[in-house]
Write a structure and sequence with these properties.
single chain; 687 residues; 52% helix
Length: 687
């Protein structure tokens, strides 16, 4: 506890006194922070004012005059920041009332004089410090102004020198014009443009140099500058050369103002427009044309398409072709990009020649894709004929670096679209038709709005499936595989089921097709195998059957996924049957996966087996344990061929007792179908 003295008598600062003093300090801090600006946080300001209050009270208790110390305390307050008269008034009001109310200064009659004199000394110190601060600021400002004037004069001289240098060396013509139009200064470049010496131009007026037909336009623009409605004007103009010829120039005019913002002169920058126009034309051509083939690019094609739709014959309309070269990637991969580029140039030339008799535009889009827009007339051939002519022409070999190359194209077609259709939407429609055509190389596909609506619905379903899976709408269901010899369960097939809130139950084949479109089938497929394997472990004796999509079958990580599932669930490899379709096994990666799984002890099955040459070759080339026949008309010899290879025969779609009897007589081994129960949750399956 701190003690202080008044004369020789000690005055203890009790806990209550300290608490009251702290309360006064908080009040001072709160009120002062509302009227001043200081570079301190509230907490920092509170600590500072608390310390100042302690010093003030100690000096008042000391009994001596303490004027110097209290003036120093006022200076200290002034030094905190921008306190000003509002801050001083607030301080004196708070302390004048607050000190008299503190218990340590009672009785008031004995302390009032000391407090008043002390606050007076405090105020004197504050005001003296504040005055010194103001004087210092004024001196600093005076010096700053002096320096600014000196620098401004220096900068002006430098600026004028720089202007002269820029004006002299600039390749653009520069003229300083008075408000009356008289030319005050001109650089050499404007003389070169107009054929004059700069001295010959001085004293002439701007309108002496402007072609009479253009003078009124320039005068209107200058009026806008002078009345403030424009800050800068830029015009293409015609100036008169000394030899009488016309110089086509680009003219930019700005207004110069003095220190009072009053207009004084006009600055005119002149650029010779001849070369600029040529350059702009070339740049425009490059922006709108493909560099390699010289054909219009997609941007130019889209703009042309919009105008062609508006002017199209209402009865005949237009036809849009979106072409893609078949196997172009193989050409580039095997013979190099240079050969590929030269082939593209050849194709561009051939397309232009094929369409030469039509009112058409041929454009290159991206990579090996081209667009053709035909404005149909009475003599325009039908779509099939145009596509046939294109492919027939491209089928004639051309030699590129001693390689005889011939190509075909797949084509998406939009025929006679609505004139109100947006060009972007029209290009999208052609692209969709092309994607369908590319499934059959060298073919073409017409865009159909109904097909487009169906495709959009399917795509909307596909992109919403990940969310549905995350929310638990997609589940695993099971159906029995029955041994035809005795009717007992020989295995269980795991399948997907999407309980869609609007469309109802979407079964496995549709779920798998949708998931394949977005790549979701890989994680969903692993989840399916994992969930089913865990259930199969619980069932113990019934083998699990899982058939993969082509996308899954070619997955480079398929074997690793299966290994993880078997390790995590404890399912024996022999109790897992993995099926791959004949179509999927035509891909080398899928066939390799098939062999690896067989080596791991997993039972392998060929799905959708139709008995064709490729199907039968797979029986010889792959380690096949079973074959599931496709739902084609029953051919008894097919089951015998499968048995001869050592594989079991599985049939699907057995929905009636008669079908079951037919397959039993054909020596099929296992059967699936509605006759044995629809796919259901694991708890509902009757094993």
């Amino acid at each position: 506890m701190r003690t202080s003295g008044q004369g020789s008598d000690a005055v203890p600062t009790s806990t209550n006194h300290a608490r009251k003093r702290a309360g006064l300090a908080r009040k001072w801090t709160y009120l002062l922070s509302g009227v001043v600006v200081v570079p301190l946080t509230g907490e920092e300001l509170g600590r500072e004012l608390g310390d100042q209050l302690d010093v003030l009270c100690d000096e008042l208790h000391s009994g001596s005059s303490g004027a110097a110390a209290l003036e120093a305390l006022g200076e200290r307050l002034c030094g905190l920041g921008y306190i000003g008269e509002h801050g001083l008034r607030c301080t004196l009001e708070v302390l004048g009332k607050g000190l008299l109310a503190l218990p340590e200064f009672r009785p008031v009659e004995s302390s009032a004089e000391r407090i008043v004199l002390g606050l007076g000394a405090f105020a004197v110190g504050f005001l003296a410090a504040d005055r010194r601060s103001v004087i210092a600021q004024q001196e600093s400002m005076q010096m700053s102004l002096f320096k600014a004037v000196r620098d401004a004069k220096s900068n002006l001289r430098e600026s004028e020198a720089r202007f002269d240098e820029v004006a002299t060396s600039s390749t653009s013509g520069i003229m300083i014009i008075g408000l009356d139009g008289e030319l005050v200064r001109a650089n050499a470049a404007i003389g070169d443009i107009l054929g004059y010496l700069p001295a010959e131009l001085t004293g002439t007026t701007l309108f002496d140099l402007v072609h009479p037909d253009s003078a009124e336009v320039l005068r209107d623009a200058m009026d806008k500058l002078l009345d403030g409605s424009e800050t800068r004007i830029r015009q293409s103009q015609r100036l008169l050369r000394k030899d009488g010829e016309i110089a086509r120039i680009s003219l930019t005019t700005s207004l110069l103002r003095d220190a009072d913002e009053e207009p004084t002169h006009l600055v005119i920058v002149v650029e010779d427009g001849t070369e600029l126009m040529l350059l702009q034309g070339e740049l425009k051509r490059q922006v709108l044309h493909d560099v390699l083939t010289g054909l219009p690019n997609r941007q130019y094609f889209s703009t042309h398409l919009e105008s062609a739709l508006r002017r199209a014959d209402p009865a005949r309309g237009v036809t849009l072709f979106h072409l893609d070269l078949d196997a172009f990637g193989m050409v580039c991969n095997s013979l190099g990009r240079r050969v590929g580029d030269r082939l593209l140039v050849h194709v561009a030339q051939r397309l232009k020649e094929v369409m030469a008799d039509e009112r058409s535009m041929v454009a290159r889009f991206d990579g090996d894709e081209f667009g053709i827009l035909v404005e149909n007339s009475a003599t325009t051939p039908d779509v099939a004929t145009i596509v046939s002519n294109i492919n027939a022409d491209l089928a004639e070999p051309t030699f590129v670096d001693d390689h005889g190359l011939a190509v075909s194209v797949s084509v998406g077609v939009v025929h006679r679209p609505s004139r109100d259709l947006d060009p972007t939407e029209l290009l999208r429609a052609a692209d969709l038709a092309l994607r369908r055509a590319k499934t059959r190389r060298g073919q073409w596909e017409m865009f159909h709005p109904d097909q487009d609506a169906h495709d959009r619905e399917a795509q909307a379903l596909a992109v919403s499936m990940p969310g549905a899976w995350e929310q638990g709408e997609v589940s695993v269901v099971y159906r029995r595989a029955v041994r035809l010899s005795d009717g007992r369960t020989a295995g269980v097939e795991a399948r997907l089921l999407w309980d869609h809130p609007e469309l109802g139950a979407l079964e496995h084949d549709r779920c798998a097709a949708l998931a394949d479109q977005t790549g979701l089938m890989l994680p969903v497929g692993e989840w399916l195998i994992r969930s089913a394997a865990g259930q199969a472990v619980w069932w113990k004796e019934y083998p699990l059957i899982v058939c993969l999509t082509s996308y899954q079958a070619s997955d480079a990580d398929l074997a690793s996924r299966v290994v993880r599932v078997l390790a995590d669930t404890g399912l024996r490899p022999g109790l897992l049957t993995i099926g791959m379709s004949v179509h999927a096994l035509e891909v080398a990666e899928a066939a390799d996966n098939f062999r690896v799984l067989a080596d791991m002890g997993v039972t392998t099955m060929i799905d959708e087996f139709g008995g064709g040459t490729v199907d039968l070759a797979l029986l010889d080339d792959l380690p096949v344990k079973s074959v599931r026949l496709s739902r084609s008309p029953f051919v008894g010899e097919l089951a015998a061929l499968v048995h001869d290879s050592g594989a079991a025969v599985v049939v699907d779609g057995v929905d009636t007792a008669d079908q079951e009897a037919s397959w039993r007589s054909a020596k099929a081994d296992l059967a699936m179908g509605d006759l044995y129960g629809a796919p259901c949750p694991p708890g509902d399956i009757s094993l």
